[in-house]
């Protein structure tokens, strides 16, 4: 399975990838994008199976990326990883079609729980 | 309004879970320049700026832990990225603890900040830590 990690922070992309691997998903292929706009191009070119995206990014936010994908009929599985943890943000994410929202700081266990349910 | 204990708890949790580092409680140390600074703004029903400030050595510790780099491999861009992400996470968690509708800005980083420009608002909440023996401050400035 190919997982796209979207975050404008290179450090955070590294941490997310490392933590997902620690959660037991090290056999998957990880690809990256620095914002929503770049993610759209990567999704078109490399057809990942799953997107793990930050919320707050320059150019195109994570929620805008998800809405753009759904408006084009792309049903790719999508989860948010964000420091935004308010109930409004969680509701907005789920309403737009996200499978889950993981709040930073996170643990491998949190990824294991969410990804196991979604990828099953 | 969050108090200094709330800010201390949030900051400790972020650094322990994201970096695998433990902060020790510290106090203001006027002899050390906290020249590496990252800020983020909260706007909406509540307005404030969250700032993290640290010495270059502490910033290096954060960066090596965050990026999984060896100390000699750290570039300035890695430091800016890492401390920007730390303030983003601390700011996001502070935002989550505040009632009402608020938004978080993108982080802003300075690797050569002038401490003489420090905000002196009486409402600011500031906590000091030690990270690998180096001073590190987290400040919430309402306004």
Task: Kindly describe this structure.
- The complex is a heterodimer of chains A (120) and B (143).
- Chain A has 120 residues and is α/β, with parallel strands linked by helices.
- In chain A, 49% of the residues lie in helices and 20% in strands.
- Chain A is built from 5 helices and 5 strands, in the order βαβαβαβαβα.
- Chain A has a 5-stranded parallel sheet with strand order 2-1-3-4-5, sandwiched between helices.
- In chain A, helix 4 links the parallel strand 4 and strand 5 (100-103).
- Chain A is globular, with a radius of gyration of 13 Å.
- Chain B has 143 residues and is of the alpha+beta class.
- In chain B, 34% of the residues lie in helices and 28% in strands.
- Chain B is built from 3 helices and 7 strands.
- Chain B has helices at residues 4-19, 56-67, 76-96; strands at 24-25, 36-44, 48-54, 102-104, 108-110, 125-131, 134-142.
- In chain B, strands 1, 2, 3, 4, 5, 6 and 7 form a 7-stranded antiparallel sheet that branches.
- The mean pLDDT of chain B is 87.
- Classes of the chains: A alpha/beta (120), B alpha+beta (143).
- Chains A and B meet through helix 1 of A and helix 1, helix 2 and helix 3 of B.
Features:
heterodimer, A: 120 residues, alpha/beta, five-stranded parallel β-sheet, 5 strands, 49% helix, 20% strand, globular, B: 143 residues, alpha+beta, seven-stranded antiparallel β-sheet, 7 strands, 28% strand
Task: Give the low-confidence spans of chain A.
Answer: none
Helix and strand content put the structural class of chain B at alpha+beta
Based on CA atoms alone, the radius of gyration of chain A comes out at 13 Å
Q: Report helical residue fraction of chain A.
A: 40-55%
Shape designation of chain A: globular
Please name the two chains that share the biggest interface, counting residues whose Cβ lies under 8 Å from a Cβ on the partner chain: A-B, 22 and 25 residues
The helix content of chain B is 25-40%
